[in-house]
Amino acid sequence: MVRALDRYVFTEFWKIFVTTALGFPILVNIIDLTDNLDKYLGQKLSPMRIAASYLYWLPDSMFMVLPAAVLFATVFAIGALTRHSEITAAKASGISFYRFIAPIFAGAIVATIVGLILGELAPITNKKRMEILQGTQMNLGNDRYNFAYAADNGRVYKISALHLIDATIEGMVIERKGKGADYPSYLISANGAKYKAGK
């Protein structure tokens, strides 16, 4: 049976949880926008497209902060109730501590369900965000991102993005560990490159 005390405890927990779950992602978005605004403006992105990209990033950032939000809400809600002697008053009325915190447990279950929903939603919204920021849709069948390839003679290729259709590479590093003067070490890097199949 839900009592007025249960609603009160649940409300105290939920106020802190919602503030944390929304406040931290918004703060992260503001910091990221401050760091990358010049880059976005250099790509000729309109303010509406930039705002939409951060709106699409919100589910992922909320999903990442959800466990911390539950922890914050639990600690600060119980701390506030203890500070005002409400837990002592409830125990004096014959309510056990475990029964008293049952609404917090229910709130954590609701937060878990919200986290599962955000976990399913985040990859979809992240893909839309990348489409906005890159200006073109990502073709996952023809593009590869952030991988390394070990070739013959000890060479290692580290590539940020490989586009098969237009045969271009972004952010390439070629590294070789040498074994002396006859076989020296070297490190070659380039912001972009083109390649030919079989070459």
Please specify the SSE layout and strand pairing.
Elements: H1 4-42, H2 47-83, H3 86-92, H4 97-100, H5 102-134, E1 143-150, E2 155-163, E3 168-176, E4 186-194
Antiparallel strand pairs: 1-2, 2-3, 3-4
| Shape field | elongated
Q: From the helix content, strand content and strand pairing, which structural class follows? A: alpha+beta
- Beta-strand share of residues: 15-25%
Residue windows where pLDDT falls under 50 for at least 5 positions: 136-140
- Overall residue-averaged pLDDT value: 84
**Main β-sheet, in a few words?**
4 strands, antiparallel
Q: What order do the helices and strands follow?
A: HHHHHEEEE
| Total beta strand runs | 4
Helix content: 55-70%
Which sequence of strands runs across the widest sheet? 1-2-3-4
Distance between the terminal alpha carbons, to the nearest Å?
Answer: 74 Å
Rg: 26 Å
Tally the helices: 5
Give a brief rundown of this model:
With 199 residues, this protein is of the alpha+beta class.
